[in-house]
Amino acid sequence: MVTGRSAEGPERQNPRLAWAELLRLPALFTVPGDALAGAAATGARPDSRTLLAIGSSLCLYQAGMALNDWADRAEDATERPHRPLPSGRIRPAAALTAACALTGAGLAVAARAGRPVLTIAAPLAVTVWAYDLALKHTPAGPAAMAAARALDLLLGAASTTGHLREALPSAALLGTHTLAVTAVSRQETQGGSSLAPLTALATTVLLGRLLAHRPTATRPPAGPGEAARHGLPGIRPDALAPMARHRRCRRSGPTRPAADALSTALAAAYAATAARPYLHAALNPSPPLTQRAVGGGIRATIPLQAALTARSGAGLTALFIAGLAPLGRRFGRKVSVT
């Protein structure tokens, strides 16, 4: 839906605008931060494989958007008749074809990035399709969406060092946020209980507090001698080189006080973006306020990704992610994501 314009105007007949609505163009700005936060969690700088992971993620995200509208076309005909499929601006067969093509493209790009990335992209694609076709309207729906976001972050970790363990805490925090937003979105068309937005508000406050505290890094023993003093097995000299590069990457960003200040500021931005609309929806769970709460939760994804990245010590990458928020708002004034 184009804001501020008549539904009968020529803008509604623009096929490019219809596809921008179907693929949720403004929401695409929330995608790159997943892979970048995952790469930062491993302590490695983003590289060409990280860019490929982002490309794969964008394709799979758009596939999910097209498939979502195809699966919900009958429901949208009643509740969202302005959407591209029920309004007749895009044929259902075209949307399904786009979903299949984008899924294939996402997996092909992931394969180009390497087997570790494809190993994450494949279950991510399965989760996207399972959510849209089977799980969305079941109690497992929010958990499936949360799993998809968490896997998307792990896609970035797989593209760098291939070690996922270090990225699991960040993936869990991002998944928790997504779980809360999705739970609220289930009642955005008809309103409902205050429980979901109230729970989402409490989740946002908790995540904001966690994000404001940078985890303490654990330094591996410097060599066989120090390892022996700690009762650990010795480390081969050739195994120390990746660790040294790992530490250099973490030191290449802002100093510790500056990084902590940046993490705190981004955590506050995250909480401020999501908390207020959640509170309004909790006080009055009407459809308009619930929809605003969902929009606030989606917008808060970017400062959350940036805070996770800054928390991992990658300050410059965090600032880049944060800079995607105004771009998303700019496009959001022209294209609706609801």
TrEMBL record:
It is found in: Membrane. Its main location: membrane. The keyword Transcription regulation does not apply. GO terms for cellular component: membrane. Keywords: Membrane, Transmembrane, Transmembrane helix. Residues 244-253 have a biased composition (Basic residues). Pfam families: UbiA. One of its GO terms (molecular function) is transferase activity, transferring alkyl or aryl (other than methyl) groups. Residues 215-257 are annotated as: Disordered. It is a multi-pass membrane protein. The keyword Transcription does not apply. This is Putative membrane protein.
